[in-house]
Design a protein that fits this description.
This protein is mainly alpha-helical. The chain folds into 3 domains: about 50 residues; about 90 residues; about 40 residues. The longest helix is centred in the middle third of the chain and has 33 residues. The chain is built from 8 helices and no strands. Helix content is about 80%, strand content about 0%.
């Protein structure tokens, strides 16, 4: 008696977890293996783990450029950009909360501490943290995005789809206004409820 085969839908879903370049090279083989093996949780877990590893480490195809080194540099540059801009975001968030809520209530108490910390920094260091670091983060972020888009046709396709969706939304200003009104109303109600609870 032959082992029960996995449904083709499950096979397609699992193969679809892998990047496009990987699927083009190995997708048919993996699909054939999945259709022969029972769809056990262990098999599914192995396939998902392999898909995550394949997405974390770009496939180097014969005759094609090896993008692994570039991807590591881009990942490190992206992390550095985030680390550079975080202090400024913390300062701006603290300043905003400090303006909106009295000092004796949380989270304003923490916001005042953060704001006072930045206020106590020497002027030159504050300029580096609040101006130079975000400027460097902007340059790094744009450089990584530019390089990534140049190297990755899938990302360019995704960005084009996002742009097309934004253009379609711009043709429906009433829908955009309704969504913005709903989000703004929710924010105001949460803020009002917080103040009522705080007394």
């Amino acid at each position: 008696m032959r082992p029960r085969t996995s449904p083709p839908v499950l096979s397609r879903l699992l193969v679809g977890l892998y990047p496009r370049a990987w699927r083009a090279r190995y997708g048919d083989e993996l699909a054939a293996l999945l259709e022969e093996a029972p769809p056990s949780p262990g098999v599914v877990a192995d396939v998902v783990r392999g898909a995550l590893a394949a997405r974390a480490t770009p496939l180097s195809l014969p005759g094609g450029p090896d993008m692994t080194g570039h991807s590591r540099v881009q990942a490190l540059a992206s992390l550095l950009a985030v680390a550079l801009v975080l202090p400024s975001l913390a300062f701006l968030s603290a300043a905003t909360v400090r303006l909106m809520q009295p000092r004796e209530y949380q989270p304003a108490r923490a916001a005042w501490v953060i704001f006072d910390f930045f206020g106590a920094l020497p002027r030159e260091l504050a300029a580096v943290v609040l101006l130079a670091a975000p400027a460097l983060a902007l340059v790094l972020g744009l450089a990584v995005a530019w390089r990534r888009l140049a190297d990755d046709p899938e990302s360019r396709t995704d960005l084009a789809a996002l742009g097309a969706a934004a253009r379609r939304m711009s043709r429906h200003p009433a829908l955009v206004a309704a969504i913005l009104a709903a989000l703004a109303s929710a924010a105001v109600l949460i803020f009002a409820a917080d103040h009522l609870i705080a007394g």
